[in-house]
Amino acid sequence: MASHVPDPDPLETEVTGLEPGGGVPPGETPPGEGTSVGPQGPRVPESRGFSQYLWMVLIGVVVLFALLYFVGYIVGLLS
Asked: Model's pTM, two decimal places?
């Protein structure tokens, strides 16, 4: 019953990549973080609303009028 079980905490001299104060020397990779980032849970679809489409139509109309103005100026209808 007296089997040899290794110590779960290795000696400080056997730990690789650590400096005496516990820091990581330059060039070594520190251990990764154990946190999860970002929203959790199911994704809820967002409603876009009427105002977003209204703004898109308004911008489209302004761009169309500006295009027609410049085409008319180039053709010579507006002088």
From this structure: 0.40
